[in-house]
Amino acid sequence: MTWDSLCAYVLALVVAPLLTGIINRVKAMFAGRHGQPLLQAYFDLAKLLRKGAVYSGTTTWVFRTGPVAGLAAVLVALAFVPLGKVPALVSFNGDFLLVAYLFGVMRFVTVMAALDTGSSFEGMGASREVQFSALAEPAWFMGLVTVIYVSGEWSLSPALAGVSSGVWGPAGSAMVLVGLAWLGVFLTENSRIPVDDPNTHLELTMIHEVMVLDHGGPDFAFILYGAILKLWTLGAFLVSLVTPYRTGMVLLDLGYGLAGMLILAMVVGIIESIMARLRLVRVPHLLLTATAFALLALFLVMR
Amino acid sequence: MDGMGNILWWLLILPVLVALISPVLPSARSALALVMVGVPLIALLALWAVITVFQAGPLLTVGGWLHLDALSAFHLAVLMVVFVMSSVFAGVYFRHEPPAHALDRHSARRFAALWYGAMAAMTLVLLSNNLGVMWVGVEATTLLTAFLICLHVSPVSLEATWKYLIVCSVGVAFAFMGVLLVAASIGAVSATDTHLLHWTHLQAIAGNLDKNLMKVAFIFLLVGFGTKAGLAPMHSWLPDAHSQAPAPVSALFSGFMLNMALYAIMRFLPLVASATGGSGWASNLLIGFGLVSILVAAVFIVVQRDLKRFLAYCSVEHIGIIALGLGLGPLGAVAALFHTLNHSVCKALAFFSAGRLGQIYGTHDMRKIRASLQVNRAWGTGMLAGILILIGVAPFAIFMSEWFLIRAAVESQRYGVLGLFLAGAVIVFAGSLRHAVGMAWGPRPASVKSVPSPVLEWLMVVLPLLFLLVLGLWMPPGFRHILESASVILTGGGTP
Amino acid sequence: MHGITDNIMAILMLINLALTLSSRLATCISLVAFQGVMLALLPLFSHEGLNPRTLFLAGLVVVVKGLIFPGLLSRAVRDANVRREVEPFFGYGTSILVGIALLTISFWVGIRLPLPVSETTSALVVPGAIGAILTGLFLLVSRRKAVTQVLGYLVMENGMTAFGLAVVPEIPLLIELGILLDVFVGVLVMAIMIWHISREFDHMDVDQLSTLKG
Fold it and tell me: Which residue in B112, B154, B292, B347 has a CA-CA distance of 20 to 30 Å to C109?
């Protein structure tokens, strides 16, 4: 554990809510509006934490466990993911599997909580969420295997750190493909356009939002914060992939990482502004395409 | 040798030149006249070259790019025979087309240009020493003959042309893959760029070619050129194209274009044989494709109702027989080459008759063609005799070449192959005989009038029949020498 | 290190993938043209480099595959007034699975073929070439429009060109020109045929060309 890793972790906890603010501002700019304050997510979280929660009489402890367990899972996962070329807090060989399954745990508890309400809409959302995640997983893993193959490292931090400017020369096209595949996964997992529209509140079209309709107060704050951290964590993969090299200066490295995340947020904002949401039946196509990209990247580096 | 070498040049250039002047001819009549007169003249030139080869040995010219040895000379002779027959017949045939189909000036010029273009391309296939150029020639024949099929534009003829174009282009593209693999199999043996893919060069180093790559290459070549040759199961374009093309074109397709594709395969045969150390691997493939072609064709022949489609499936069968012969060792190779000539002459005659009878009856439906011996004595005779010879009635030449083939099978003790071949031949015999007898006799349809046969048409029927009869009864020693020296090349004996 | 060749082959494979997916004819035509042009430029990077012969050939191929073919085919599409492949035999989902399968097969075969690939060429050329050939075949059998079949043929031909680059160090100029002439005339003939077909049938759906059987 080094100081800059700890700083990166704290930075993530503090700055992550800013990303949604940036995304919303970019979208507002494209639409010609002024938009929410940049810090809106912080205000929302603060407001929700101050409220009390209402629980339906039909729900059980499963419903109450969901948000807490989900947030806990993503907090642990965040500790394994490097930011830029700053290594993560913890790393060991094969830690990427743990990260994948931590996200799996988060999804599982959220889905269980949604099913526990007994609402048919939430069941529908849960079904979609699981389907799309299952399809996103191969693309994510293929990309990861490519990175591992290129760097020869079996742990996330050194593997992503291994994708340096020296790798981008000969394996550049493969890395671009991995980046594109991961972008697809990133958008899907975080329920962004073109997969899911976080702004709609029509149950029939929603995926992620519909599952958490029954949560309120601190529970909802946990869910919101968990989602924000997931956005950061998965985004960190992309940013780490494209960061050229580690300078060794703590501030500069962190600055790189942070700048990368902010740019990523803007890119997401732009994508959301210029693209329409895909019809639900087309979402698997997007994910399959991402898988094909990642597979091609893997073939390209493996020969 | 250089003086004679120039002939090879002229054989290529003359048809191209004539093809180029065809589009400016003043009338349809003059275009047809050009075809009827010009082709025999070029054939005479080719005959001279062929005779030279068999008397004085192979010709090699233009830095080794053009080459005429016994094998290609034999095929050149067949090519010229078929082309002369079809050209003369074209003059007769197009004069009798119904008004709706009559050739106008425009399409007659197009016919003449494409006809000579196809001639040049096929000659190029035979003459080129370089296997890459040979491929170019095979592909060129596909493109040049495509519009000959839809000389009369109609929905069905377009359909046939499209299938022909796509299936053959893709098939021949596979063969290109094979040619590339052959080039790759030279590997480190000798990378002299100037001789790359020259057949004479490859022949010399065949023993050192990479064995595995040559096997892969030969599969590609067999499938690729086999598509063009109409070997089953790649024959799907063949019945469509043959049935929709005008009769002279069908005759040319069956009579020589299929053989030309087989010739392309033959060129690679000795190379593969020596690369694989004479293990007979390539021969077995050829036997397999040959038998499949014979049996598939046999089934379709029995159920066929359209006269020209029936003849087309007959071609599939005979190409299968030739491929089978190529796989059966030295005697089989002689039989295959002999069969090539016999089949080409006979099939041309059969398509001529089918074309003229089709014009007279206004249909190609074999159930409606009855009493053809009464309606038109010459072409009725041609049809009946042509089919009988095709199915191997003694004492005509096809019977003899099939007899050689049977002997080759017995000598190499391939009784299973022999049994399958005989089974196919018996099915074809029975099925075809029914069609032949039905068309020759029977009640004459009331709407069809008798048509007299001028001397020229009689000649076109009688001469091929006489030719086949003579070859069936007596093989001239010179001809035997030609067949043997050509087959020596096939069996890897090298250029004599 | 074969940086440029590697990247060109990666793009080539992406184009293969895009071709299995795209149903817009205009997009497909541009993709195939782009693929052809890229392959034409490949020898300039892979062999000993620039000399008059390679430059001349590359220029010729760029003109034929990059300008003339797309022009001819777009014209055919415009005359026949079709824009996209309606109701393709394979939907998007199936197509992409096929694309992934083709990719896998081409790498699997490409690595196992005992080819004497010269050290100057990138190891990606053979898999890329096989991928293009397979993609071309897939287009030929899976699409209804005549134009797409021509495109399939062209993609196959592109694949063969790439294959030739990898395994045959230098094909004699005469053969190269002959092949190019054949392909050129081939596409010309096919374009004319498409024109005839769309005039005679009012469509160019090849699956409806099924009168002749047996």
Answer: B292
Domain carrying residue A247: 3-302
- pLDDT for position A120: 86
Q: What is the pLDDT of residues B88-110, one digit of tens each?
A: 999 999 988 887 777 888 889 99
Q: Which of B136, B156, B166 sits opposite C182 (nearest CB)?
A: B136
The predicted-structure confidence for A182-225, as pLDDT tens digits, reads as follows 999 999 999 888 888 877 666 666 788 888 888 889 999 999 99
Pairing type for strands B59-61 and B66-68 reads antiparallel
Residues 6+ apart with CB under 8 A from C88: C23, C95, C142, C143, C144
Residues C135 and C132: their CA atoms lie apart, in Å, by 5
Chain B touched by C163 (CB under 8 Å): yes
Determine, yes or no, domain membership for C141: yes
Q: Answer for the pair B68, B80: CB distance below 8 angstroms, yes or no.
A: no
> How close B172 gets to chain C, by Cα (Å)?
11
Q: What is residue B198's DSSP assignment?
A: B
Q: Is A135 on the interface with C (CB under 8 A)?
A: no
CB-side neighbour CA atoms (13 Å) of C192:
13
Q: How far apart, in whole angstroms, are the C-alpha atoms of residue B388 and residue A168?
A: 73
- Closest-CA distance of chain C to residue A282, Å: 9
Alpha helices in A208-249 (DSSP H): 217-242
Query: Could A296 and C10 be called an inter-chain contact, meaning their C-beta atoms sit closer than 8 Å?
Result: yes
pLDDT, tens digit, 9 for 90 and up, residues C123-166: 788 899 999 999 999 999 888 888 889 999 999 999 998 888 88
Looking at the complex, report in whole angstroms how far the Cα of residue A299 sits from the nearest Cα belonging to chain C. 7
Q: Which ipTM score applies to this complex? A: 0.92
B166 pLDDT above the threshold of 70: yes
Q: Which of C203, C209, C211 to mutate to test the interface with B (most CBs of B within 10 A)?
A: C209
Rounded to 10°, the helix A217-242/A61-78 angle is 30
Distance (Å) from the alpha carbon of A289 to chain C's nearest alpha carbon: 7
How many other C-beta atoms lie within 10 A of the C-beta of residue A259? 13
Domain boundaries, chain B: 1-129, 139-279, 287-496
Query: Cβ neighbours of residue C110 under 8 Å, at least 6 residues apart?
Result: C126, C127, C128, C129, C130, C131
C214 within domain boundaries: no
Mean pLDDT of B4-11: 84
Note the pLDDT of residue B493: 56
Interface of C with A (CB under 8 A): 1, 3, 6-7, 10-11, 13-14, 17, 21, 92-93, 96-97, 99-100, 103-104, 107, 111, 123-124, 127
pTM (predicted TM-score): 0.90
What is the model's pLDDT at position B254?
Answer: 95
**To 10 degrees, the CA torsion angle through A112, A118, A119, A122?**
10
Q: Quick check: A166 contacting C, CB < 8 Å?
A: no
Q: Match 């080094």 to its residue by tokens.
A: A2
Q: Is residue C32 domain-resident?
A: yes
Q: What is the mean pLDDT of chain B?
A: 91
Tell whether C67 is covered by a domain: yes
Domain with C118, as residue range(s), is 3-206
Instruction: Please count the structural domains in chain C.
Output: 1
Total count of residues recorded for chain C:
214
